[in-house]
């Protein structure tokens, strides 16, 4: 899997709840999924699209103006942001708050934002309150998890409607998982409802965590008409083991198929044994005679 160039997305979604408790649950699933993959040294980046949207509405921007300012904010180009706001004739208090967004990042960003965005509209204050609540809940559940805030990080701006988050590991520029709230996802189908979720690239997780987390390999069994074998395969699968049944004439051996063990017939029973040097073609031929 890890060698494949085709992305394999994994993740989770939670529908029907609009509170920060839903974001906490999705964040917890993401964190635990990364840890189960063997990725321990993660840190989070949190933001909220409602802060920028609320300030844009407060300034009275049209769609073209909002998009241009959004692009400048992504580059954190303060002179460009200031120039755009001057061209738009934005009032000084609102312009000052929009410029501040490019500077509001780091572990103390929410504390600084409380002062710099004190004059913002109610939607902005609501978004800040949501981030503070989520931060408090996260700290209680994961007190040792580093959290970084970036109020100008707006990737997914046209898709997300609230909290946005991403997980990173030291020394790697791209996120290893990301997600957020997207309540408008069903709007085109006439059923908009609260929704949040996360996604990750399974290939990347295997690459990053493969040296620290060993996945139990499969068991190879011949596909022969034997009720005892069938019951044994069902028992193993019910217990959570992966059993691959090799079809008659299929080339390759257990090792080539990623199997560390084989089901071997011993008397009237089938027993799981460690694979040493097992010739698949010969085993199938002997079992079908």
Number of helices: 10
Task: Give the CATH H-level superfamily of the largest domain.
Answer: Bira Bifunctional Protein, Domain 2
Number of domains: 2
Major sheet: size, sense and barrel closure? 7 strands, mixed
Q: What value does the Rg take, in angstroms?
A: 27 Å
How far is the first residue's CA from the last residue's CA? Answer: 36 Å
How would you explain this protein's 3D organization?
The chain has 289 residues and is of the alpha/beta class. The two termini are 36 Å apart. It is elongated, with a radius of gyration of 27 Å. A 7-stranded mixed beta sheet has the order 1-7-6-5-2-4-3. The protein folds into 2 domains: 9-209, Bira Bifunctional Protein, Domain 2 (BirA Bifunctional Protein, domain 2), CATH 3.30.930.10; 218-288, no CATH class. α9 links the parallel β8 and β9 (243-246). It is built from 10 helices and 11 strands.
């Amino acid at each position: 899997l890890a060698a494949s160039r085709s992305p394999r997305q994994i993740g989770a979604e939670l529908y029907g709840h609009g509170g920060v408790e839903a974001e906490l649950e999705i964040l917890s699933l993401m964190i635990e999924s990364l840890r189960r993959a063997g990725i321990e040294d993660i840190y989070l980046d949190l933001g909220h699209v409602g802060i920028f949207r609320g300030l844009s509405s407060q300034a009275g921007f049209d769609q073209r103006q909002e998009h241009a300012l959004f692009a400048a904010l992504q580059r954190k180009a303060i002179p460009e942001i200031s120039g755009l706001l001057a061209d738009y004739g934005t009032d000084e208090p609102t312009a000052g708050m929009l410029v501040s967004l490019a500077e509001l990042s780091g572990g103390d960003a929410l504390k600084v934002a409380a002062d710099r965005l004190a004059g913002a509209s109610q939607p902005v204050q609501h978004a800040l309150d949501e981030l503070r609540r989520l931060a408090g809940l996260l700290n209680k559940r994961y007190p040792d998890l580093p959290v970084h805030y970036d109020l100008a990080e707006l990737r997914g701006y046209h898709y997300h409607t609230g909290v946005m988050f991403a997980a990173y590991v030291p020394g790697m520029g791209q996120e290893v998982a990301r997600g957020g709230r997207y309540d408008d996802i069903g709007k085109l189908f006439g059923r908009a409802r609260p929704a949040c979720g996360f996604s990750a690239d399974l290939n990347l997780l295997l690459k990053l965590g493969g040296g620290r987390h060993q996945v139990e390999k499969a068991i190879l069994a011949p596909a022969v008409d034997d009720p005892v074998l069938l019951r044994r395969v069902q028992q193993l699968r019910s217990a959570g083991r992966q059993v691959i049944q090799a079809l008659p004439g299929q080339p390759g051996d257990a090792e080539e198929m990623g199997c560390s063990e084989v089901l071997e017939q011993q008397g009237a029973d089938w027993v799981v044994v460690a694979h040493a040097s097992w010739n698949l073609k010969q085993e199938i031929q002997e079992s079908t005679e």
